[in-house]
Every structure is written in structure tokens, then in C-alpha cells.
Amino acid sequence: MKALLSNRRRGFTLIELLVVIAIIAILIALLLPAVQQAREAARRSTCKNNLKQIGLALHNYHDTFGTFPPATIRRQGATTEWETSMISWQARILASMDQAPLYNQIDWSIEPGRTGTNATAMNNELPAYRCPSDPGNRGTTGQSGYGPTNYVTCTADSGGYAAGGSTYQNNGRSVMFLNSKTQIRDIEDGTSNTMMVSECEVGSAFANVNATSGTVCTGSATTKTRGFSWFYAQSMPAWSFTTLVGPNTDLLECAQSTGGSALLGARSKHVGGVHTLFCDGRVQFISENINLGTWQNLGHKSDGNIIGEY
């Protein structure tokens, strides 16, 4: 009899087991958000470091060539000028991004730039050009032959292809644009007050139309080629953002693949804002609630508006 009683004391009742299971479930529910937050914090840190590395590479390029790289190259007046080089600024800094072998594979004389032997180079997906918080991939953009990117350059608040005008120049507003050759001395508002690069979500949808007067989009957001290539910069959604809208905007965005006016904002998967690289090399997380006028001033290198706290 004593042995039987002793054996019964060693076991758990059904109610006790259910209580233990319930406690474990509650602990898991409490811990999961903390684990997810820690993972996202690590991803945000990696994204920030990517932009810092890009900033160093851009300054190395400036030290070597005397200017920051052009956002893209178009040989105006050519019969098929929209299909001329169009190799992006991100390809031009590869040698300083620990990608010298890949840089050496590129044939800069090929037109269009995406053809020939360059088709192999541009197919590489580079971790340094991807934000780990964004799961978007080639399938998202529908562009299987290109390695996507989360980092795009600012074309300020003009909204045209290179940001404005029939000559496709941005009239000196941003640092990198079509055929640009910007030097540090041209950044009259100061390198700490002028941004060069921010984020985009790979494959985020926009309307394939021109922005009306450069500020309003119509139609449906069905095109998903945002950030589709770090190499080929024919299309504005691949390589640029404008400051006509604030970070993570809820407004409809739009652009055509060649020419016209575009309205494309900086955008990220991070809660509350976007990482932004400034001309002095620092990276700052900019709130999506930033005043639009302040955001536009930060995108213009020589508007005379020196920004303080924001």
C-alpha cells in the first residue's frame, strides 16, 4: 500500500500538466516579441553599416576621380540614347566595396550597358546593397536577370528623369544625377546638411505613368520594378528617390521607365522611418514624420537653407 501511494505522488495530475503548459505558452508569447525586436535591431544595424560602407566608397571615388560618381550615364543625341551606357553609381564604387573582381568584370564601353559580358556581372546579388529587413527579391520585381538593391540616390524635389528639363539635367539640385560631376565644393549647404542616398523597398508598387506637374500621380500602383538593379540605371525606380514626398509615404508613387516626371519616395521596412546617408559620410535614421519642407531642404545641395535640429 505504501509503495502504491509513493508511486502516485511522483506523477502529475492532468490539471497540473495543463497549468504548466499554459505557463510555458505565456512565457513564449512574452519572449517572442523581444526576440523579434532583437533580430530587427540587428538587421537595422546591418543596414546602417551598409550605408556607412557606401559612404566611404563614394568618398574614395571622389578622392580618385575628383567628383562623386554620376547616378547614371546617358549619351545624349545617340540614336538609341535611352539604351546607352546607363551603368549606375553603385557599379562605379564596387572597387571600394570589397568587390574589385566584380568591378573588373565590367566592360564600361558596352552599350546598352546591360548587354554582353555585363549581363553576368549585373546578375550578382550583393549583400552590401541589400537591407536584411527587406525580403524583396528578383521575383518581387519580375526582373530575374538583375541583382536588386535597397539603396537609391536622391534627385531632390524636381521630379524629372534626371531631374528636370529637356536637357535632362537636375539644375544642380542634388549631388548625383544623370551625367553629374559633383565635387564637394559644389555642396554649398554643407556636407552635413545634404543627403545623397536612402532606402527603397525592393519591388514596392508604383504607377507606370508620369507625375502630373511633377507632384501628383494618377492610375494604379501595379508596376513593381522598384530597386530592381544595382547595376542598370535606365529606369528611375531602379536608382533614385525624390523629396516631393516624405519617407514611407502613403501617397501614390509613379514613374515611367524612360523619361518624364517621377514621384518616388524613400521607403523602408523599418518601423518609423528610413536610414539616410549624408555627404559627410554619416548615416542618420530619419523619421517618416519629418517636416516635408525640411526633407526637401536636405535633398538640395545649394538652396541656402541650412538645417539645424530635425
UniProtKB/TrEMBL annotation:
<protein>
    <submittedName>
        <fullName>Putative major pilin subunit</fullName>
    </submittedName>
</protein>
<keyword id="KW-0472">Membrane</keyword>
<dbReference type="Pfam" id="PF07596">
    <property type="entry name" value="SBP_bac_10"/>
</dbReference>
<dbReference type="InterPro" id="IPR027558">
    <property type="entry name" value="Pre_pil_HX9DG_C"/>
</dbReference>
<keyword id="KW-1133">Transmembrane helix</keyword>
<keyword id="KW-0812">Transmembrane</keyword>
<feature type="transmembrane region" description="Helical">
    <location>
        <begin position="12"/>
        <end position="35"/>
    </location>
</feature>
<dbReference type="Pfam" id="PF07963">
    <property type="entry name" value="N_methyl"/>
</dbReference>
<feature type="domain" description="DUF1559">
    <location>
        <begin position="36"/>
        <end position="292"/>
    </location>
</feature>
<dbReference type="InterPro" id="IPR012902">
    <property type="entry name" value="N_methyl_site"/>
</dbReference>
<dbReference type="InterPro" id="IPR011453">
    <property type="entry name" value="DUF1559"/>
</dbReference>
<dbReference type="InterPro" id="IPR045584">
    <property type="entry name" value="Pilin-like"/>
</dbReference>
